[in-house]
Amino acid sequence: MVNYLLKAGIDNILSQNYDQALEKFIRLENDFPAIPLGKIFQSAVLITKAVDYNNFEDDRKIRQLLDKAEEQADSLLDISDSNVWNHYYKALAVGYQAYFSALKSDYFDAFSTALTSLEHFEICLEIDSLFYESYTALGSYFYWKSAKTEFLNWLPFFEDDTENGINYLKEAVENSVYHKHLAANSLIWIYIDRGKYDKAVSLAEMFLKKYPNSRFFLEGAARAYEEIEKEKAIEYYQQMLKSLPANIPSIVINRVILLHKIAMQYEKLDDKQKVLALCDEILSIKIDDEYISKLEGRLDRVEQLKKRFADND
Predict the structure, then answer these.
(1) C-alpha distances in angstroms, 176 versus 113, 133, 171, 182, 183?
(2) Distance CA 267, CA 301 (A)
(3) Contact status, residue 117 vs residue 66, Cβ threshold 8 Å
(4) Superfamily covering domain 1-129
(5) Cβ pair 235, 224 in contact under 8 A
(6) Is the dihedral of CA 178, 70, 105, 159 positive or negative?
(7) Where in the chain do CATH 1.25.40.10 domains reside?
(8) What is the rounded distance in angstroms from the CA atom of residue 45 to the CA atom of residue 16?
(9) How far apart are CA 164 and CA 294, in angstroms?
(10) Among 7, 28, 95, 239, which residue has the least CB neighbours within 10 Å?
(11) pLDDT exceeds cutoff 90 at 289
């Protein structure tokens, strides 16, 4: 039943059915109170929803869930620190704390808690080398740590872990039970970072077959298609645009961003009429004061884009 509830909840997250996902994880907490997974994945729903909707009104609830989950994981580790699942619970709880802190620009807390999470994921593999739930976090860490410090590759003591990270993520996509979607998304953006756009598209399309309206995978696919088939990128950005809920005020941020991305693709295709129409549409959108600060730079770029094309008359 734990396995069913986790998988069903994750499927709902990926389909943006956040209320249904939350129901599954609340049931998981109620039916299996001895483990912290219900709390951890409730926080995962709220964090994903916050990012998707650009609305962090559930901050306090997220922190409470993760703090309680970490306390429970610590209690389980006190009972048995040789149990791989106990380390997994700890790694997940502090890992989500790190991610949420980074989203809130609290980078000191994000860094320190991320290191704790990685430590426990590594312990999981020391206990069981085939514990694939650890591969996603460690694979992402290995790749981006090396990719962002590649200027140090000439040093004799510096080890380039980019390929190791990619291999970990490939294993996670193949074998992870609960985090293959995260592994796939990480791998998609790594392929984009490395200029392997065909591979990024192929992997994104594979997951879109199961989750056809998932903005989670549509975004990666659209970004990769920008480099190889701009018309397809436009199609996917438009699909994301149509999928946005209409009754969430903060969604105006997503709408402006997506319309601008579509306009930039038409700019590359030198379609003046569509560029100007999209710029006018963006600049006519009413944006509340509480959201305007997040869009000021982008709105300036839209103005500049409109001016460039208007001046070509």
Answers:
(1) 23, 5, 8, 10, 9
(2) 13
(3) no
(4) Tetratricopeptide repeat domain (1.25.40.10)
(5) no
(6) negative
(7) 1-129
(8) 9
(9) 37
(10) 7
(11) no
**pTM recorded for the entire structure:** 0.91
Angle, vertex CA 11, rays to CA 246 and CA 96, nearest 5: 85
- Residue count of the chain: 313
103 contacts 73 by C-beta, under 8 angstroms: no
User: Quick one: angle between helices 197-208 and 180-193, nearest 10?
Assistant: 160
**Can you tell me the distance from the alpha carbon of 36 to that of 290, in angstroms, rounded to the nearest whole number?**
35
Tokens of 241: 């645009």
Type of residue at 292: I
Retrieve residue 178's tokens. 């609960």
> Is residue 153's pLDDT more than 70?
no
What letter represents residue 106's amino acid? D
Residue 29 and residue 38 in contact, taking contact as beta carbons nearer than 8 Å: yes
Beta-carbon-side half-sphere exposure of residue 184 (alpha carbons within 13 Å): 25
User: Interior CA angle at 191 toward 188 and 196, to 5°?
Assistant: 130
Mean pLDDT for 180-197 is 95
pLDDT in tens, 43-95: 999 999 999 998 888 889 999 999 999 999 999 999 999 999 999 999 999 99
The proportion of the chain whose per-residue pLDDT surpasses 70, expressed as a percent, equals: 94
Write out the two tokens for 79: 């009972």
- Between 3-12, 16-25, 101-110, 216-225, the lowest mean confidence (pLDDT) is in 101-110
CA distance 59 to 31: 25
Residue with tokens 């088939």: 229
Q: What is the dihedral of CA 142, 146, 149, 151, to 10 degrees?
A: 170
Q: Residue 72 and residue 39: Cα distance in Å, rounded?
A: 10
